[in-house]
Amino acid sequence: MDQNKIDGLDSIFYPKSVAVTGVTQTPGTVPYDIFYNILASGYKGVLYPVAPGKKSISAVKAYRYVSDIEADVDLAVIVFPAMVVEKALEMCGKKGVKAAIIISAGFREVGPEGIKREQRIKDICAEYNISLIGPNCLGVINTDPTSMLNASFARKMPSEDRIAFLSQSGALCTAVLDYARGKNIGFSKFVSFGNMAGVTEIDLLHYLHQDEKTDVILLYLEELRDGRGLMEAAKKITRGENAKPILAIKSGRTPQGADAASSHTGSLAGEDSICDAVFREAGIIRVNTLDAMFNAAILLAYQPMPAGNRVAIVTNAGGPGVMATDAAVSWNLDIARFEPKTTAKLQESLPAVANIKNPVDVIGDARSDRYEAALDAVIKDANVDQTLVILTPQSMTDIQEIARGIVKVQEKSNKPMACSFMGASDVQVGVDILERAHIPHYILPELACKAMANVQRICKWRQTDLTDFAPLPVDKAAAQAIIKDLPKGYLREDQALDVLKAYGLPVPEHKLCKNADEAVAFAEKIGYPAVLRVISPQIVHKFDVKGVALGLKNAEQLKKAYEDMVAHIGNVLPEAEITGMLVRGMIPAGHEVILGAKRDPVFGPTLMFGLGGLFVEVFKDVTFALAPIDEGAASRMVREIKAVSILQGARGTKAADMAGIEECLRRLGQMVSDLDRISELDINPLLVGPAEQGSAVADVRIRLDG
Amino acid sequence: MDQNKIDGLDSIFYPKSVAVTGVTQTPGTVPYDIFYNILASGYKGVLYPVAPGKKSISAVKAYRYVSDIEADVDLAVIVFPAMVVEKALEMCGKKGVKAAIIISAGFREVGPEGIKREQRIKDICAEYNISLIGPNCLGVINTDPTSMLNASFARKMPSEDRIAFLSQSGALCTAVLDYARGKNIGFSKFVSFGNMAGVTEIDLLHYLHQDEKTDVILLYLEELRDGRGLMEAAKKITRGENAKPILAIKSGRTPQGADAASSHTGSLAGEDSICDAVFREAGIIRVNTLDAMFNAAILLAYQPMPAGNRVAIVTNAGGPGVMATDAAVSWNLDIARFEPKTTAKLQESLPAVANIKNPVDVIGDARSDRYEAALDAVIKDANVDQTLVILTPQSMTDIQEIARGIVKVQEKSNKPMACSFMGASDVQVGVDILERAHIPHYILPELACKAMANVQRICKWRQTDLTDFAPLPVDKAAAQAIIKDLPKGYLREDQALDVLKAYGLPVPEHKLCKNADEAVAFAEKIGYPAVLRVISPQIVHKFDVKGVALGLKNAEQLKKAYEDMVAHIGNVLPEAEITGMLVRGMIPAGHEVILGAKRDPVFGPTLMFGLGGLFVEVFKDVTFALAPIDEGAASRMVREIKAVSILQGARGTKAADMAGIEECLRRLGQMVSDLDRISELDINPLLVGPAEQGSAVADVRIRLDG
Description:
homodimer, alpha/beta, Rossmann fold, 4 domains, flat
């Protein structure tokens, strides 16, 4: 991130002075509230209201124009109606204002007129080097005590915390602030970034990566405007020494949701499965709901990272222990098996009727001493990576004492812990103690398990081997030469095969032959058995017109097949003009896999992979990636499908040539990145044998753009 | 349900007098608390403490023995330690007490000693006709104003409501009561039924079906002790004129959870996928968490049933509208398409920037009038079955007024509604208004959608065509004759085929031939091509020893194959004793499906169905049922697998003979119900062709018990 951008964002989060332009005197309206929120939030700099015609706002001297302010202004918050924003921004530029937050709506999201308006805003920002948040947003909050800025129309300033929240939706922000307050969660920075006419979510991620006040970043998106950029940025932020977890909601997951999002933001959503791929390769943990997001965030912000996925559960109620076990296991957490010495300790300190296996049941009449003893024992167990403490409010349960005991044990531990004091009012006294001690609390144990499972996704990502993209040697010029002068539409099969061949894909030797003799001559060269495939611009589905002949063993069979095919097609599809026949050898049987590529209007070139036939159609068992892909991404892509076990040699069969598939995907990725006329490509199937046999392209379709 | 059971349960829920036996004077202990809870709950009958050696408990005259009480006692609540319970119960029996609740633990759940103790309790109940809840439970609560009984050690009496809760786990109950109170949810009846030594969950379901105070039944189970009984009972309760929805959590879903459950209750969990089948056929809606359960329960209890699955969403924030749309669609709800007149009305009453398509966005500055107008319009739309109202707390949002407006609109409507006022503290004033008006409120819109989706499961169940079990004509005697004298273990293939044949399954004509000539003679009779399959007690996997020959076209080929096979097996497996060869005709190709049956230790005979090969192994795409099954259940079973579209004719192929598969399953179900020596059976595969061709058993294994 360049210094100019950092300086701009510093001016947004840590301005020495702020002018609010367009302030009114009416409480309960956005223009007034924003001004008042800055005034009341304890802001450490100087605040200037710009309100033409007013002497003061809430006793603070008001200015007619921003240019009238006698001192420098770092940040302008613009709340004028959309029509006037341009003028106000220009005046800010002339004044030398470094950054602006445009709260006003009425831009890109309202259609062509607004798009033009937004472009003019962009131009002004570029001209005067203004760092811009918005337009169409709720504003910015920075709880850092050195700034204490609530430049938003959110009613209350959140408390200081280690969690940052970024949102494309402004309206969501008020709900999130209120929701978080209800759970005693605060924020480090809170940004409603709106239309991203200036600062983007990617800029903000980079900035927060360096922000010492932020440990966890939460992100709400309705579009991935620059999926590739987000992927590259997040990959750096979520890994390495200063790694910070990013949890994101990307709404518009379903076609109906995407429709709603686009009518709401004027943005194109892009294929959701490709969003998944972007997040996977970015190390962003995608969640679908605010509670899943915050439930994981508090565990990440308040507790250490676990060394592994083994959970110990301590409970005073069997039923919830069972439910927690179910939840943990179904989300791929392991139920820790205790060391013998732990079991011995538990046996010693718990009554005979207690369950000393994991989940440990300290029994309904347990008081704080029993909880502490059990917890202390399991936390010290080398097989335990994290603990979950469950409490139900029984008659004997000294809720506060137990909470204090838990805090005491946890203070001495460096393993993460989560608690679920089940209920609502009765347990609240205990929950307060836990929350003050920053031990994450969940109303149900299942929610704690889900949060732990999301943390595991981050651990797993951090352990993933990342590779750099290294292009494979290909003959780009040859491929370009083939397609250069071709019209829009599908490539002829032999040309499509030649393009693949230029990129090093395993294509069988083949030739387009104009007559039976030529076909025989070529077959003699490559050896029998041979395959004949009709080539005709009018024939898309060769099998429908019996346009394929397999396993032709000699010249005689080949010749006959050639003639029969011409005759048959002449009968059933007389309008078909037969260009010739593609002759090639037989391809050994193998697993049918599909490799696809497509130019997505939002994401650019993308790749698809799946097992052939019914697996794709019935089970939708496919994965995607942005092209090109590196070695690591290819490996993850292939291993992400559910049916991967089939390729790895389920049912006692030999493992398929996985490395070969991965290489094909990498070559294909390179190809669709290089050759931007290719709009769609399907290798269906690639026949994959065991490693020593390798793979071969059995059929391919390539479509060119105009 | 017989009158005796009803009378017994009446004595539990509506006793005219209650004796608490084993009361102490120490508040904070179970024996005192139970007594005090009845005293303080406003109980409408007479309460007697039985406390040897005490004159009074909390100013109420105490008795040495229950027999000392001068009047009749309907219900005894026994809180003595386990060792003394038997004695106390016997005294109750002699006194003529009609019902008892044994709170004390220390029975079945503690092992062999406890099991014996529990049996003695059962015997006493049988002898004196005592209706018994427990032991090892929290007690019983009835909020009916005519009874007002809190015979439990739960701290507070819940408010009266239309929801009943039944729990096998006592410890969970305190958490549930506190949790529900936090959401302003009350109960009609609340029962912790513990070890079910007397009254079972099935008895309670029948009772609640007739209970005028109950509309919705919630059930927490850790075992299905009588899955078949539960299925039959629930089927009656969840359908018909007085239908009441049942929502259940069955914990121990995972093997690890089941382990934990069995070490906790001493109960066997049974295969979880069979629990699923039981619930499916019972019409019980299975959920996994308490919040899913209560979220659906309030919608069922407080709102009418929807006519269909089409939802209208009204929101003041785009983002949450998109997230709600995603959630709704991913749970199979439809986003309603408005009628033109609705669109016109919305256009008229909302500002130009509002979104008048579903989800309707009334925009952040909406006040109550806009919400009311939008809601009124969409609720009246014939394409809308239910509405979801979302609110985020913006500056302009008059939360209380909007809540009141929503209530006003909803009062005139007969379609269900749910609301999500997102946040926590700011929105609480509105939430209170909604909850008082019994409009279900959810902290996130996604939770509302999930609740609506669970309600849809109930609607769908009510529309399901149920059929009665009608046995198909089979030759049970013939099958019995075959297996009668056979030893434990696998049946010989020809015998297994004969058993299937007796039950009318489509078995190819076959014969066990002792030599090549016999084989030829039989093949000539049934016609070529023929199949040879070696029969030997030592050979389990025929293909491994080349023990199968297919497509033998004439006597010569058959004879040669016979001799070659004998020779080959003599070489590779000299110890194999060859009984002979099974000769049969070729079976036409078709879809490979697997039909299985198994005697489950908990559920008895069960059936399994799935598509052959990888579908079962990789995707675990199988369904189960308790045997026998009726027509409807067979149809549901076959249609429950994900791959059913393949059988229905995906990829333009002909639909498979679904009716044939269903009949096979029904016959198989009848067979394993009739022939209880069969412990395991696999038809793998049944080859299924199109309807006119039908199915044929290609391979079968049947295992007999000793």
